[in-house]
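Appendix B, Record 12. Input sequence as logged:
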Amino acid sequence: MAHIILVRHGETEANRLGIYQGKITDHFLNLTGNRQAEAVAKTLKDFQIEKIYSSTSMRAIETAENINDYHNYHDKEIIPSDDLLEIDHGLFDGKTLEQVKAKYPKILETWWNHPEKVKFPKGETLKGAHRRVTQFINDVITGITREIRSGNDHGDVLIVSHGGAITLMLMSILEIPLRNFRKFPRISNTGVTLIKVTEKGPSIIAVNNTCHWNCRTNNLRQLIKPKKSEQ
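Logged structural output:
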């Protein structure tokens, strides 16, 4: 058994100000974001992280580096991947919701009501983003499952990405149609989503856990404790 740990990056000023931040617009973590990254690093202390993947955006790389540094994984390289980038919002990037409403009202209406049909101006479709993140997460799951079925131990895998990208990965695993994208729970900054992988495949055991930031106890420890049937 192994775990895939999906972590959204920490807060940036764009997040705080409600500015669209996709593939093009990038920001460093702000003070809150750095504190969130340090807190999530501490809550992952019970995991045996073998590989660390990150989106190539600076906000994701910074979050991954915080986790890497806290655990002294000096022998582990952070593996960057463009496949983990946020949905490319195109010309929405760098704009507030009010600015987007004023300039692209019809596209925004489609994004809200029929996300599966949206094509961001000079950006990508939701289907295109779904395709690339699905390929990535499926490759990771397949690799872990193959090792487990061969009788080999496999450590946990950390993936630092973005809210939209993580949502699309989960929808893919759960086979949820893209038309329901808006109905899926919003992923918070440094929210932890946990996927258990066995020889039978993946199962999602936590979505958007933020107890490292707003709880007194680390309840992830209970989630990774094996049941008697698994021991």
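The CA atoms of residues 56 and 82 lie 6 Å apart.
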